[in-house]
């Protein structure tokens, strides 16, 4: 994924060139550089803000979007959040991992301001530590269940789980929830294998898989590119034809690229993710439109920032106010909020995470296809 140049780092900018005093201020203290840069939502937020401003803004008020680079550092994120809060923002976004989101939310609570994180699936945010928090997606047990349900439909019985503590519950527990659903439906977890981010040689894990009897029908891993692409190639080279199943970390254009020479490499790959992202989906069309406007939105994670802007727009319009608490109450009490990534979301019953469908993306002839897009009813209950 292309990263934003350092010339933008540390700059605050508006979504349109000039603003009156009455604006809707949104602050994004996000990782434009560093390890977490691929998960930053500011590109989609900037594009959607510009689109809404071109249409007259929110209740006649333009959106003023402040973006500054945290360098993927928590203390920097907290300091920038404080600055934005003093500037009067209605909503905040930050680094999408709980060790940053929790302290930022605690600081924001004193101002009556909430965080809207459009891409965070970590369960830690829904444990009652903070309540001034929204995520535009459902937690990892939902994505794990959606993937497991599709795997079961493919006849999957025996699975191997790859786990790592390096990505928190996302990489450590999401595979376990996948395995739980498989076993509840008569399948079996054959093995749990550890891995580290940045792995380029999967031969130790592959050797363990080849020694299993029976062989797995699927392997599940919640990890990122390029690691996942390397795993797929090495599994196939070793003669292992099991399904390779994963979560939103698979949703990167570079995964598609591994099938450019041999599309069959992706025939038995699928993942549960944050939005339908096949050709001509709403997200893909949005990215094309943004490019025409001069904004590069390079993938699903950056595109999710559009949901933040759309949610704030809904909250301000519904509340008839830019008071942060009133905006948050309007978002939380709505039966349905229109967003970009799926048809709609709701926080009415869930409070901090979005009740929404979970898309599962597979491949046909090397191209993405949407295989399911449902709210799973059999989600494990041992996470909240």
From TrEMBL:
Gene3D superfamilies: 3.40.50.2300. GO terms for biological process: amino acid transport. This is Leucine-, isoleucine-, valine-, threonine-, and alanine-binding protein. The gene is braC_2. Residues 23-352 form the Leucine-binding protein domain. Residues 1-20 form the signal peptide. Pfam families: Peripla_BP_6. The keyword Thylakoid does not apply. Belongs to the leucine-binding protein family. It comes from the Bacteria. The keyword Magnesium does not apply. Keywords: Amino-acid transport, Signal, Transport.
